[in-house]
UniProtKB/TrEMBL annotation:
Domain SusE outer membrane protein: 30-136
Record's protein name: SusE outer membrane protein domain-containing protein
Signal peptide: 1-28
Keywords recorded for this protein, A-Z: Signal
InterPro entries: SusE (IPR025970)
UniProt-listed PROSITE patterns: PROKAR_LIPOPROTEIN
Amino acid sequence: MKQKYEIKKSCLRLLGMTVLSFFFVACGNDDIDNNYSRNNYEVNLTASSENVILDESKPNEVALTLEWTPSHDYGNDYIVTYNYQMELVGSKADAIKEYEDGGMFIRNYTNKELQDLLVDKFDQLTSTKGVMKFTVTASTEGPRLIVPDIATVSVTVKTYGAKQFMADKVFLAVEGQEDIELVPTASNPQQYVYSGELPAGRIYFPVLYGDEENAICPVTPDMAITTESMEATVVDRTETNAWILPETGNYRITVDFDAKTVKIIALGEIIEIDKLYLAGSAVTGEDIEVARTLENDNLYAFRGELKAGSLYLPILFADTKQYAIAPKTEGVQDVEYAQDMPLKQIALEKAMRGAYWNIPEDGIYRIVVDAENQNIRIYSQDTDIQSKVVGPWNAQNAFGNTQDETLKTYSGPIEKLWMYGTFNGRQTHDDGVPAGFQDKYTLNQSLANPNVFVYKGANLPRQTAGDYWEKNQITGSVMFFVGVKTDDGVERTNNNAYAFGSTADADRDEKRCGYITATAGTSLELVEGQDDNRYAYFIIPENTNYVMVDVENLKVIFDHK
């Protein structure tokens, strides 16, 4: 006989009594028998097991039996109805409800029946555990009010089928070594990272999940590793295959349960960075973060003050600083200003002990790190890239149409670019600038190159407004105007300022605008000046949230990133 588990129901019954006590007060004229309603709770719901593992090989075998005892017999004047309910804890699906008045106080479920209910009805994943809650409510109707008798029982049920990317523990397995347990990162509990030396040969990732011993392995058996994230699958450990490490060396491994991928890279092939810092005696105080540029996720840049001394760049990845960027050649290296210098990734401790660049003197430096091509450029003040100077041009309108004659031959560096056109309705503007100009649609100057300007943010609007001359309705047109810094430090501009427009056929004297339709991700030519190009526009692609303008090489790219 299967052991039965009786569920205590005192809390539920007490709650029912409390609710009904308010009802009784409100219905003061009812004839209530408190002795019966208080003391006659007799329904007991039991399950054949608290934990059930469904067996795919025995679909018609009973996996779970539920039974309950009848409620108290109040006599022939009372009718009892049983409400039987089944639900999966945490599921958004509605509970299954049945009414029983024929004296059948038992329910049997086969392996297949429970599997179909859990997977198809309640959306439980295959090969996972879920808690099913069963409830029986005995409702009694008769001359006197009787409190419902409620009993519940919970059963943990594990479905069969394809295994999921779920784990209680994750390990790394290689030939000739004991399994190494991996731990999730603090920032992402679904991502497991390992860095260290591994031997050449087969590698896979054992997983403990409940009563299962599984493994994460490649979809294709004995697959050679690549530098990209590789598709993975979960199988029983006895059926696992593996990836192949080509040689003994230091590797960084990332197992991503959300993406269902594994990434295995030899340290030095690809540099993975969450954040990058400057460190060494050239840095005063704490490490200084090096910003990731807007124009290139693999490009990092800094411009600021450094002291004479050692310089290396610690890497923060997966919440830890284990490695640093240092010269590719061993030891201390002198700086070759404004030149690409090869770099490599080494242990942070090694960089601290004597693998770094030597900054020769105090000063302002620009540092640009290309993590993809693995080189670094260091600029001193004397060798630094200078902002492009444009002019002379008539800047009177940018200053509120002042009559200051000296502004007719204004020259100055480009430090800010504004977008202008029908894309934002042309009439909307910020305080202090003419219609059409908004600060949120300016382009930011790159730290890596002051002649590169980038917008990266929300999708640009594509509104419709009248053509500047002909008043035709144009959608999504844009060009770029130079900002002018006044004595009070405020950047101003005007549609009669120095401009970067398209190569479209436009003519100021004939009052004719021109338009070129841009394609996402394609580099287009710019035309600079204060003549016909001020009426030559680009039509931006839909969903554009990235614009890069190179004022030195006269190129523009519209894209979605």
